[in-house]
Amino acid sequence: PLEALVFLLPRALDPGFRASPMTIEYATTPSPCFVLEESRLRANLELLAHVQRESGAKIILALKGFAMYGTFPLVRQYLPGVTASSLSEARLGREEHGGEVHAYCTAYIDEDFDAIAAIASHVTFNSVGQFERYRGRLAGKSAGLRINPEYAEVETDLYNPCVPGSRLGVTAAQLGMKLPEGVEGLHFHTLCEKGSDTLERTLEHVEARFGALLDQVRWLNMGGGHAITRKGYDVDKLIALVRATRARHPNLEEIVLEPGSAVGWQTGELVSTVLDIVDNGGVRTAMLDASFSAHMPDCLEMPYRPTVLGAKNDAAPDEPGHRYHLGGQTCLAGDFMADYVFEKPLAVGDRVVFWDMIHYTMVKTTTFNGVNLPAIAIAREDGRLEVLKRFGYEEYKSRL
User: pTM score, two decimals?
Assistant: First the structure.
């Protein structure tokens, strides 16, 4: 039975996997539970540190994508800071990471702004209007503007900041040829898990529209969405792009990248357990103690189809084996993913393990239906499984 399986996370699953795989006994973890493998996180951080050294860029962690602060003692050995999109994220960065905090909010809440400015070293504004409103309250911190180059290679409109009429960033037509006095930096964020070739094409549009303004600032933030730790990513091209940008604009004292996904990429799984098997008209659904709606919302929003360890995830309709829908814990009718094929039939008590479920997953969980949040654990490099948190009724009640 699957509950007895011990999965070895193999290089065969992803030939580009850089860490030394270890054996994780998923049968011994809480369920549901996010389990991060420390050695895989370190491998990602080592690569990001290499990019920093070779390019001269500063890489900071985007908390909106990865905020598992139990890992921050390791993260801060490699990344000098974080970027925050709210006062809560700014506080988490200051308290748990302890390095630089860069802030960008789509619109700052008046009663939060002074606290954010007290924490952050860089404060980026989404509009000239917000900059003008708060410029006198910056407490000496460096101000920037988010720009919209009106170009993005993002397939899903929900994630595309450059759709016509976008509320994110200032266009070149709105800015003109001169920045407001006091603006020291520009920030664009138009990528979504893209390669350095996409960044190259994006930079061409940024320079075409904002080239004159780049010579008026001292820092440029290239945002997140750089899939630096993904297999096949051209790291050398990224390094060359950063160097070339600095050469064309020698006034730029800082070039900043702020990935979230790239830090947590393929560092851990979501472990779940089969609670029941439902058969309706020949469609079998394995009912889990995890939820796509509450615990893995990108699977429904993106939509993103997660890989399940030990299953054929893109099986043809006539694929031999035992086919199941995987059903979530909530009463939402669409809280399921269809057509996973297993070699052996599933049974109550079996573990179902979702691969690569740390970035942009833990940060989006909810307690819809009163469903408990997954526990959080780290598989340490010395082989220990450390359970950092378990959640229950109080987390549900405290939100209401």
Answer: 0.93
